[in-house]
Design brief:
Blueprint lengths: L2 H25 L4 H12 L10 H4 L2 E3 L2 E3 L1 H22 L3 H32 L4 H10 L5 H10 L6 H29 L2 H35 L9 H19 L5 H12 L5 H16 L3
Antiparallel strand pairs: 1-2
Length: 295
Amino acid sequence: MDLSLQILLLIALLILLSKGLGGLSARVGFPLVFGELLAGVILGPTFIDVWHFSWFSSPSTLAGQAVSLPATFKVFAELGVVILMFLAGMETDLEMLKRAMGPAFWSACGGVVLPLGGGSLAAHAAGLGWKEAVFIGTVLTATSVSITAQTLMNLNHLRSRPGATILGAAVIDDVLGLVVLSFVLSAETRPAQGMGLGVGLMLARVTAFLVLAMTAGPRLVRFVLGRVGRFHGPHTPLAVALGAAFVFAAVADRLGGMAPITGAYLAGLFVAMTPSHAEVVDDLRSMTNSFFGPL
């Protein structure tokens, strides 16, 4: 089957099932995202395993090259997560976030230390060596910031103090988890004298990105969106803002060694400081809730 037809059928299946189960989830008092996640579980390897359907597993070619549908869809999914976190950044109350940074930081520390320690001890008690046990504990420090953001948006708590604290903690947890992972991998792959160098380089990359983003980011976004009026055409602020989000996501990945969603979230915070904020949010919210969020 042609790749484009496969993609169209798969997206139709995913959106209809996820929105249908999301609606049922909301009717019984759960967040929409619970039903959307359930749709993914049903279609995934646990139950149906949609990738083994003949329609979606048959070889496809694009420009003469073999293309995998799961790999192609992964691009759509990652794009959706980046846009979701960009929207979450724009809908975050900056003043509330600043006031919540203290509790968020300590919550994030607990969200790293407790899973790391508890997971390591549990894995070691189950018979694994300490190296493997610590790696298991490190894996357990990971959080899904995008699910947190989607849930808070569904519950209309993103602009509340608890919501700002939870989302801030999730973002900080991602950064701390990255540092812990770097330390564990360096301990495994480098000699003792090189371990500190590996961790130091990771910290330097994260620090360089955050300093560059926080100092130059707001000015750059304000400058670019301030000149949107010179371009004619509908939804131009949204297009420019999305371009900025993708750039920040790419820089976070390549320069900071961080998840692209962190850069997208920061871009959303910066766009929230501009006069175009309300227009961009209105245009992007429907697109995210109907298409990119479910994917």
